[in-house]
């Protein structure tokens, strides 16, 4: 009897140790490095490179999920890793860059603004994680953290570029620019925790064929960005940062549903979300 039991244990195959997928997590780690690089550059007063690090992290962050879906390598580990990377690259990094660049000149008000942005980024990411299954995937509930980071970092990048041409930027004194930075930081942070709908572009199918004119427009868009990247990119993200409130006001005026929570009450815990 003992020998049979021992034989069964020997013949029973060992469970394979569950690993992680390398390819999508490499993109996530690269995005995390972009955020870390931004903080280091801000500490060394290279704010132009700090802003570029945030934008590089945005590009890499947009790729990791697509790579995971294309290669069928999605995992719960990857989702958690992506959220933690986003918190560093689009939460802590922009707040620290803004503080080092200008906000620390405001004393207590400066670090309060930076902390509000950082806290709102954490709340935004936490809400996104728990609402993934109930939010309409075509829209973001609140300004996505990469776009909020682009507002803050883009403004700093633009002001740094213009600041090289003179002591004053657009006839604004440094003190005035500091308060504008304060306003931008608060606006970006608080916009992340609103219920305003921001288009997610997730229904754009990359595998479908498109008319030739679309490729021409993309080429023109790249050419326009290259005219002066800081100005064009910042303008695009300002427009996107306002678009959610425009859509919200439009739907409210039309009497349409403004909440991005899908109409589904399959789970009892979700019923309170559909009000």
Automatic annotation (TrEMBL):
It is found in: Endomembrane system. GO terms for biological process: phospholipid biosynthetic process. It is a multi-pass membrane protein. One of its GO terms (molecular function) is CDP-diacylglycerol-serine O-phosphatidyltransferase activity. NCBIfam families: pssA. GO terms for cellular component: endomembrane system; membrane. The chain crosses the membrane at residues 20-39, 109-127, 139-159, 179-198, 210-227, 233-250. This is CDP-diacylglycerol--serine O-phosphatidyltransferase. Pfam families: CDP-OH_P_transf (PF01066). It comes from Variovorax guangxiensis. The keyword Zinc does not apply.
């Amino acid at each position: 009897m003992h020998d049979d039991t021992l034989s069964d244990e020997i013949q029973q195959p060992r469970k394979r140790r569950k690993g992680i997928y390398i390819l999508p997590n490499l993109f996530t780690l690269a995005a995390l490095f972009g955020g870390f690089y931004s903080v280091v550059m801000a500490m060394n007063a290279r704010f132009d490179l700090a802003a570029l690090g945030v934008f590089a992290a945005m590009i890499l962050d947009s790729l990791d999920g697509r790579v995971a879906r294309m290669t069928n390598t999605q995992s719960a580990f990857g989702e958690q890793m992506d959220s933690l990377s986003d918190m560093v690259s689009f939460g802590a990094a922009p707040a620290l860059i803004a503080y080092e660049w200008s906000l620390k000149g405001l004393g207590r008000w400066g670090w309060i603004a930076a902390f509000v942005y950082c806290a709102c980024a954490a709340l935004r990411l936490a809400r996104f994680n728990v609402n993934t299954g109930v939010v309409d995937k075509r829209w973001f509930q609140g300004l996505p953290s990469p776009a909020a980071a682009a507002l803050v970092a883009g403004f700093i990048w633009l002001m740094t570029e213009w600041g090289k041409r003179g002591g004053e930027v657009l006839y604004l004194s440094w003190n005035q620019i500091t308060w504008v930075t304060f306003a931008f930081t608060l606006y970006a942070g608080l916009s992340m925790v609103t219920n305003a709908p921001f288009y997610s572009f997730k229904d754009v199918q990359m595998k479908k064929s498109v008319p030739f004119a679309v490729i021409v427009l993309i080429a023109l868009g790249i050419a326009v960005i290259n005219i002066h990247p800081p100005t064009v990119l910042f303008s695009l993200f300002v427009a996107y940062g306002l678009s959610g409130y425009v859509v919200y006001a439009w739907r409210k005026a039309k009497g349409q549903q403004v909440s991005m929570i899908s109409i589904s009450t399959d789970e009892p815990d979700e019923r309170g979300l559909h009000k």
